[in-house]
Design brief:
Strand 12 and strand 13 form a beta hairpin. An eight-stranded mixed beta sheet has the order 9-16-15-10-14-11-13-12, sandwiched between helices. It contains 22 helices and 16 strands. By secondary structure, it is an alpha/beta fold. Helices cover 60% and strands 13% of the residues.
């Protein structure tokens, strides 16, 4: 991921560098196109006629901003147009063709349909600020007075039209509101009749008092029902106990004495009956929780306890007779069962009455809801009627006054100065068009230009390292002292690269220009001078057959030279000239008739391979491949370095040279790039 990101960054940087180099290289084209467009823009500005802008201002009327009662009834009167409208609506109305044409005719201008449309689009501007309730009507015209007259007339006609419109709409509103008021009044009467009929039908006079009475009565009956239920349960328990006692007592028995009833028991039973009657009366009158009722209940319990402890019979004589105990128990059982039946009947009656009361209470919310509904409808109808009544008077007032929601803040005045002609905008447009056209022209020029402009393109043609970037110098001067420091540094780096890449101590290099005029001879001459300053013994050989220049650059005689040595006419030492500082030069010599043949002969005789064996660095200046096949013959004995001049050498020339060396089986060592300065 990091490597991919690094590659993406390098690619982006390379593209940016290429773009900057292209802009720098085509800067004159860029300047020419942009300058031409700016000049045309200036002419465009000068041809625009002078115009004056008159402006009238309209603002929102305060009386119409708050529409009063009619605004409250917007849902009811939504279909009734009034004199009010939004500022955006006024913008659209002020730019209508009919209104603008009428205003122009009023000031003495008659325009055709196309001229009228052009006037509205170009001369008339109706605008408003985002958060300000102010509308601006601006008219442009060569005559300042006429511009103000048109703007004022347009505003005047629009306000008059809106006033007439407001009166007409107000008349419609009055008619509509009168109809609605009559409808609402009839609705109010109908709702009142419905409320009265419902109360009569339901038997309701005062719903709250009736509910309170039903609740109190239900509570009292519920209390009596609880008492009856308790008495019934007590009688049932007593009957069950008496049945148990009857099962243990004989109905008759034999005795020597007469068994008589104990008068104390009789008195206690009579007292118990009286107490129970008093208790029932007190419970009904005062309630079960009353103090008197509680006192009677305690006396009943005490009497019952005394009755249980008292001796009920006494022995009179021993005879066979009915058992009075059994008879008494039987009577008491009958009383208990009678009491149970009576209390059960009472309980059922009270439960029925309570159920009826609860049913009546259950229907009470229905009545309350319906009456509340009717009251709400009556209240709403009343409010609507009041609102309609107010709206009626407001609409009548609008009908009389014809109020409009706009007012004139400032009438247009004849301007003293001409309106801006948009110089800045037109210059900006001209500049943008110029930049776009310049970019297009540069793109076309780059597409038609086949020259190599960037060193990064060379490794894509042939994957070799770029040994050095040497600046181009316009004057072919070999004196390195006259060169810039940057130029001298580039020569030192190239010399170091050649020496460090040498194998077996032999630094024999043939510098092959990819095209004619690449500056290879000048590079060799300056590299020789740079080596002299570095104390390196160097031999420079001029192997050009057609146009040798190395002897002129280094100031030596042309003959005898390299081609004389290859022909066997002179020894290598005789063809070598010393230029000082351990630097020797072998010029081209006499013009050869058959350069390829001489190179073959020199290769077979060993003269070619033996040149400069006692030197640290040997540099051979070769002609381009188009001039002959010498480079191919030399490459067998020397390391070939391809020289490319950016902005001069074509891509097809570089590709052809690289393809030739690869096809012939030679292994070039690298690129030397001559950069334009």
């Amino acid at each position: 991921m990091a490597e991919a990101a690094s590659q993406g960054t390098d690619s982006g940087s390379s593209d940016l560098r290429d773009l900057l180099r292209t802009i720098r290289r085509r800067r004159w084209l860029l300047a020419a196109v942009v300058g031409s467009c700016l000049a045309l823009g200036v002419l465009w500005i000068l041809q625009i006629p002078k115009e004056y802008a008159a402006q009238a201002l309209l603002g929102t009327s305060e009386s119409q901003r708050d529409r009063g009662a009619l605004g409250m009834l917007a849902p009811l009167v939504a279909d009734i147009p009034t004199g009010g409208a939004s500022l955006d609506t006024h913008k659209a109305l002020l730019t209508r063709k009919t209104l603008v044409d009428e205003a122009l005719r009023a000031v003495g201008l008659e325009l055709s349909a196309s001229e009228l449309k052009s006037f509205i689009d170009e001369k008339l501007t109706v605008s408003r600020e985002a958060d300000v309730s102010v509308l601006s009507v601006e008219v442009r015209d060569p005559d300042p007075g006429r511009a103000a007259d048109i703007a004022n007339k347009l505003v005047e006609l629009h306000l008059q039209e809106r006033e007439d419109f407001s009166r007409a709409r107000a008349r419609e509103a009055v008619t509509y509101i009168e109809e609605q008021m009559e409808t609402v009044r009839m609705d109010l009467l109908d709702i009142g009749d419905e409320v009265l009929a419902y109360k009569t039908e339901s038997g309701i006079t005062d719903l709250q008092a009736e509910v309170e009475g039903l609740v109190d009565l239900s509570a009292a009956i519920q209390t009596e029902l609880n008492v009856a239920r308790g008495e019934r349960m007590a009688a049932a328990e007593s009957g069950s106990a008496l049945r148990g006692e009857l099962s243990n007592v004989d109905e008759v028995y034999l005795a020597s004495s007469v068994i008589a009833r104990n008068p104390v028991v009789t008195q206690l039973e009579a007292k118990l009956v009286e107490l129970e009657a008093s208790y029932q009366a007190a419970a009904t009158t005062f309630g079960p929780q009353h103090t008197r009722t509680e006192q009677l209940r305690e006396e009943i319990e005490t009497t019952r306890a005394e009755l249980r402890d008292a001796t009920k019979t006494i022995v009179a004589e021993e005879v066979e007779a009915s058992n009075p105990v059994y008879h008494e128990l039987y009577l008491r059982l009958a009383e208990a069962e009678a009491s149970q039946v009576a209390q059960g009947a009472k309980e059922r009656a009270l439960a029925s009455v309570l159920e009826d009361l609860q049913s009546r209470l259950a229907t009470t919310p229905i009545h309350a809801n319906r009456l509340g509904e009717l009251e709400r409808e009556e209240l709403l109808a009343s409010e609507i009627y009041v609102g309609l009544f107010r709206s009626y008077h407001e609409a009548k007032l609008n009908e009389i006054m014809g109020s409009v929601d706009l007012k004139v803040i400032d009438w247009a005045q004849p301007p003293e100065a001409a309106a801006p002609r948009g110089r800045g905008m037109r210059l900006a447009i001209s500049l943008m068009v110029g930049i776009l056209l310049a970019a297009l022209a540069m793109g076309i020029a780059e597409a038609l230009d086949t020259r190599v402009h960037a060193a990064e393109a060379l490794p894509r043609i042939l994957p070799l390292p770029v040994l050095a970037h040497v600046p181009w110098a316009r004057t072919p001067d070999a004196d390195v002292e006259k060169l810039s420091e940057h130029h001298r540094t580039a020569l030192r780096r190239l010399r170091t690269a050649l020496l460090t890449r040498a194998e077996t101590g032999l630094a024999h290099y043939a510098l092959l220009p990819a095209s004619k005029g690449a500056g290879c001879s000048t590079l060799v001459a300056r590299l020789v001078r740079s080596s002299a300053h570095g104390g390196i013994s160097t031999l420079a050989i001029d192997a050009s057959a057609d146009e040798p220049t190395l002897h002129d650059l280094l100031g030596v005689e042309m003959t005898p030279g390299f081609w004389n040595v290859m022909a066997g006419q002179v020894a290598p030492e005789e063809a070598t000239r010393a230029v000082g500082g351990g630097i020797d030069v072998m010029p081209a010599g006499d013009d050869p008739v058959d350069p390829e043949g001489l190179l073959l002969k020199g290769a077979h005789s060993g003269h070619l391979a033996g040149l400069g064996r006692d030197r640290e660095l040997v540099l051979m200046d070769l002609p381009p491949l188009d001039a002959g096949m010498e480079a191919g013959l030399v490459a067998a004995h020397y390391k070939v370095v391809l020289v490319v001049r950016l902005g001069h050498t074509r891509r097809d020339e570089v590709a052809r040279a690289a393809q030739y060396l690869v096809d012939e089986g030679y292994d070039p060592w690298g690129w030397v790039v001559i950069e334009p300065r």
